[in-house]
C-alpha cells in the first residue's frame, strides 16, 4: 500500500475502535502513533445480545444521504466511470461485432444499468439545472443523484427534463417523463412506444 | 465475479442482460467499499438493488455470491474488512460475523460434503462471457 492511503486507513480504524476520545486528544495520539501504544476498545465476549431491529427504509435513505454528502469528490468516482464504460462496451458489442445497430442500442440503453454514467441535462423546467454535468451515483424512482464537476451532489428530478449521455461516438438522449421507474424494475417493464433516440 | 451458468440446452443463455447487470452491480459494491473513507451505505445501496433485481427477474444468485452479503443489513462481507470469520465449535464450523450489525451465520466445515453447485456432475454447460 502507498503511504498516504495506509495512514488514513489507520486513522479511520482508530477512530472506530477507540472509545470516546475528544478530537484534540485523538490528533495528539495519532501524531506519535508509532511510538506509543493505544488502548483499543475491548468488546465484551458474548452473553445473550438483544437482536437489533431492522432499520426502517426512511432511516436507510437518511444514512445514504449523509454518507454521500461526506465524500462528494468528483475524482474519487473515477474507477466507477471506467467500470461503467467497460460494462456498456460488453453489452453493446455482442459477439465481437464492431458496428452497432441503432435499434439495438436503443433497447440496450433502456435496459442497462446507469450507475456511473456521465450525464448532462439538456432541457429542464428549472432553468438553473440546465447544463449541469456529472456522474450518476444513485437512482431512485423520480430522481437522479449526480456528482458534479464542482464536487457537489445534486438531486435532479426526472420529470419534465431531457438528459443526454455521450459514450464514445454515440449520443443518447433520454426523455425523463418515460423513465420514472425504479431502476430494479426497469428491466421487466415493457416500453410501449419508443420515442426515437 | 458472478458466475454465469446455463442449464438450457444450446449455448445461448437466457436473460443474459440480467446477469451482466448483476455482475456490474456486484463490482460497483466492491468499489464503494474500497473508496478511501469507506462508504458502507453506498455499497449497501448497490447490493440492495442487486437483490431486488434478482428477485424481480426470478434469477438465483450463486451461493458463493449470496454468502458475501449480510442477510440482515445487506452489507458486503469481506473477511478482515467488514466481517470476521473464525473457526470454532465442536463439530467444526466457520462463524461469519457482520461488523455492521453483529449478526452471524455458521457454516459447517466438512471436507466430504460439497455444495450442490460445486459438484461436477450437476454442471450442464458453462457459458463463457466473450471479452472484447
Ligand atoms: Zn449486517
UniProtKB/TrEMBL annotation, chain A:
It comes from the Eukaryota. It is found in: Nucleus. GO terms for biological process: rRNA processing; tRNA 5'-leader removal. One of its GO terms (cellular component) is nucleus. One of its GO terms (molecular function) is ribonuclease P RNA binding. Gene3D superfamilies: Ribonuclease P/MRP, subunit p29 (2.30.30.210). Pfam families: RNase_P-MRP_p29. Belongs to the eukaryotic/archaeal RNase P protein component 1 family. Component of nuclear RNase P and RNase MRP ribonucleoproteins. RNase P consists of a catalytic RNA moiety and 10 different protein chains; POP1, POP4, POP5, POP7, RPP14, RPP21, RPP25, RPP30, RPP38 and RPP40. Within the RNase P complex, POP1, POP7 and RPP25 form the 'finger' subcomplex, POP5, RPP14, RPP40 and homodimeric RPP30 form the 'palm' subcomplex, and RPP21, POP4 and RPP38 form the 'wrist' subcomplex. All subunits of the RNase P complex interact with the catalytic RNA. Several subunits of RNase P are also part of the RNase MRP complex. Component of ribonuclease P, a ribonucleoprotein complex that generates mature tRNA molecules by cleaving their 5'-ends. This is Ribonuclease P protein subunit p29. It comes from Ciona intestinalis (Transparent sea squirt).
From TrEMBL, chain B:
One of its GO terms (cellular component) is nucleolar ribonuclease P complex. Keywords: Metal-binding, tRNA processing, Zinc. One of its GO terms (molecular function) is metal ion binding. One of its GO terms (biological process) is tRNA processing. Gene3D superfamilies: 6.20.50.20. Pfam families: Rpr2. InterPro entries: Rpr2/Snm1/Rpp21. It comes from the Eukaryota. Belongs to the eukaryotic/archaeal RNase P protein component 4 family. This is Ribonuclease P protein subunit p21. It comes from Ciona intestinalis.
